[in-house]
Write a structure and sequence with these properties.
single chain, about 270 residues, alpha/beta, six-stranded mixed sheet, about 25% helix
């Protein structure tokens, strides 16, 4: 199964155009998107007047070759659009899989939107990580902006708590996890900013989860500059291989791989 993976398109039409053209020219079986598909300037019109018509156009053109699309949202995506995202799933244009499990042949695919606290104000998809501490320079989730009110129970849960519920006690040797945040202290979570003291800003809970559960593959975004800083877009934790689909240049970053041959994955910039 040929797979494409990208992340953090941030509503840039130039990147979407490149992605749509690539899908038409060389259709994959699967497309994975790990969040920040919108921007702070996105509106319902961007989804319904741009993304949906283009996906329908591609689906009509490719017919049975139209890829299965699995996506989650990220910390830059306003939660007020989640219902629209869900409705697009009902049209079989993509599968929105936050806090869900979907079976795909011999694989299980899971999705999880939340990231640890950042210095940014939008907190729809931010949670405390493994405890209620935050890095210096970051804003606590309860002090930022939300576009949708959530329950006190959800506010108090941590990423670690959530992953325990999502992953349950299953064997994950054939599981693929879509996370917006990368795991802590890897090639995928380095920042170049001096806003926070620790240059690694990934999730400790996600790292701990990978170490303990050893899923087959994890896909991440969020930290655009990490690949430029580390020179690496992938990493390994035990048996688990992890890819970073984010990019801090103008190009579209695509990771191409066959699902049963991760070692030969390649990253291209378009």
């Amino acid at each position: 199964m040929l797979c494409y993976f990208t992340s953090d398109l941030h509503g840039h039409k130039s990147r979407y155009e490149k992605l749509f053209n690539l899908i038409i020219q060389e259709p994959p079986h699967i497309l994975f998107l790990t969040g920040d598909i919108l921007s702070h300037h996105s509106t319902q019109n961007f989804l319904m007047d741009y993304i949906v018509p283009n996906l329908k156009r591609i689906k009509n053109f490719l017919s049975e070759r139209y890829p299965q699309i699995y996506l989650i949202l990220g910390n830059n995506d306003e939660r007020i659009y989640e219902e629209i995202i869900e409705n697009i799933s009902k049209e079989n244009l993509w599968n929105y899989i936050h806090f869900k499990k979907i079976k795909l042949d011999n694989y299980k695919i899971y999705g999880y939107n939340y990231s640890p606290p950042t210095p940014f104000l939008l907190k729809d998809w931010e949670k405390y990580d493994i405890n209620y501490e935050i890095k210096k320079g970051c804003i606590p989730p309860e002090m930022g902006k939300r576009t949708v009110e959530i329950s006190d129970e959800e506010k108090l849960s941590t990423i670690q708590n959530d992953l325990e519920k999502l992953a349950n006690i299953e064997n994950h040797s054939n599981s693929i996890f879509l996370f917006h945040a990368p795991p802590y202290k890897t090639n995928l979570d380095r920042i170049g900013s001096s806003i926070v003291l620790d240059s690694h800003v990934g999730s400790k809970a996600i790292r701990k989860f990978i170490e303990q559960k050893q899923p087959y593959l994890t896909l991440h975004g969020h930290i655009h500059e990490s690949t430029r800083i580390t020179g690496k877009w992938k990493d390994r934790i035990g048996r688990t291989i992890s890819f970073n689909g984010a990019h801090d240049g103008e190009e579209l970053s695509i990771i191409k791989f066959h699902i049963d041959n991760l070692e030969n994955a390649e990253r291209i910039l378009i």
